[in-house]
């Protein structure tokens, strides 16, 4: 049966398994060692500043990319054929093992990059080095890549361009990763798939109504209205469906435009105007004032700041006068 086959070496003659442990060695101790693990280069990460209009409408951007590519002159060898030799000091490993004493009876072993070959594991005589890359095997190159930014893309979203990273002999190039950075907008702020907007209106507009145009991110003009009889309070929030950002996976669908109203009040109003307003505004709630209550002055913060500033200037002037007086006073002379 199966157990007997394992005890007897199973298919040992055909596969080279001579004990049950050979199977485990195959999977856990580097069996199939002939397959070297593929080396992969690092990704190149670039930030790309994009306006809110571009994120709303979608756009195509070009990016000039500088990267290393395999030298065409030497095909990535670094010099003439046969001129590359294994580095003797590191035996081709690119690192040198060193031992240092850290305490009596204790040593520490560590590795450092081989200085002779700069960690490459091989050397080339100067006379045999490639004139194009000077033995480095790669040269710098400039490439224009095109990125299609889809509608509704968000800040921090990543666009990956496979295999466009730095090239190196016997190494699979990494990817180019473009990270979207949303540039601040003068009017709108983005919150997920919604757009927010702070809109200032006057007190008369808050009470009597208004019509306000808003230019959208795709160049249209929409009108928002408040009609007489509607009162818009300071800090009130209204929203417009379908006028937010496109949703990435469903660009025909959009979030909302959220508007917060900030009511600005006049600095002063005439007595006649106050009388007219009194006819239409609710009367103030009655307040009980005790007979022994005392009237005090209510000072505007800005007036108080100006007053305090004047006091400080006067105090500094007094200090200067005192200092001058001390200088002019006669000094005592000891006999």
Automatic annotation (TrEMBL):
The keyword Zinc applies. It comes from the Eukaryota. A zinc finger (CR-type) spans 58-142. Residues 58-142 form the CR-type domain. The keyword NADP does not apply. GO terms for biological process: protein folding. Keywords: Metal-binding, Repeat, Zinc, Zinc-finger. Residues 300-335 are annotated as: Disordered. Pfam families: DnaJ_C, DnaJ_CXXCXGXG. One of its GO terms (molecular function) is zinc ion binding. SUPFAM superfamilies: DnaJ/Hsp40 cysteine-rich domain, HSP40/DnaJ peptide-binding domain. CDD domains: DnaJ_C, DnaJ_zf. InterPro entries: DnaJ_C (IPR002939), DNJA1/2-like (IPR044713), HSP40/DnaJ_pept-bd (IPR008971), HSP_DnaJ_Cys-rich_dom (IPR001305), HSP_DnaJ_Cys-rich_dom_sf (IPR036410). This is Putative dnaj chaperone.
């Amino acid at each position: 049966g199966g157990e007997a086959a394992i005890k007897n070496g199973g298919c040992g003659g055909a596969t080279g398994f001579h004990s049950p442990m050979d199977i485990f060695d195959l999977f856990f101790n580097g069996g199939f060692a002939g397959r070297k693990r593929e080396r992969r280069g690092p990704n190149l990460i670039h930030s790309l500043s994009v306006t809110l209009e571009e994120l709303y409408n979608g756009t195509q951007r070009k990016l000039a990319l500088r990267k290393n590519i395999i030298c065409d002159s030497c095909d990535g060898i670094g010099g003439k054929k046969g001129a590359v030799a294994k580095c003797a000091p590191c035996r081709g490993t690119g690192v040198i093992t060193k031992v240092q004493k850290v305490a009596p009876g204790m040593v520490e072993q560590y590795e450092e990059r081989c200085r002779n070959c700069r960690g490459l594991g091989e050397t080339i005589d100067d006379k045999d080095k490639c004139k194009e890359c000077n033995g480095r095997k790669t040269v710098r190159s400039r490439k224009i890549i095109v990125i299609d930014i889809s509608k509704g893309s968000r800040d921090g979203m990543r666009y990956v361009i496979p295999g466009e990273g730095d090239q190196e002999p016997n190494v699979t190039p990494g990817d180019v990763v473009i990270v979207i950075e949303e540039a601040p907008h003068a009017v709108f702020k983005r919150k997920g798939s919604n757009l927010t907007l702070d809109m200032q209106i006057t007190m008369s507009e808050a009470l009597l109504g208004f019509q306000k145009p808003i230019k959208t991110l795709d160049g249209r003009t929409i009108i928002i209205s408040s009609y007489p009889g509607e009162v818009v309070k300071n800090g009130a929030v209204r929203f417009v469906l379908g006028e937010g950002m496109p949703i990435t996976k469903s660009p025909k669908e959009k979030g909302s435009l959220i508007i917060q109203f900030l009511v600005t009040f006049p600095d002063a109003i005439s007595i006649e105007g106050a009388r007219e307003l009194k006819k239409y505004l609710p009367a103030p709630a009655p307040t009980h004032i005790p007979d022994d209550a005392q009237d005090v002055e209510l000072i505007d913060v800005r007036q108080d700041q100006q007053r305090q500033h004047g006091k400080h200037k006067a105090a500094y002037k007094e200090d200067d006068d005192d200092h001058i007086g001390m200088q002019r006073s006669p000094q005592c002379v000891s006999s």
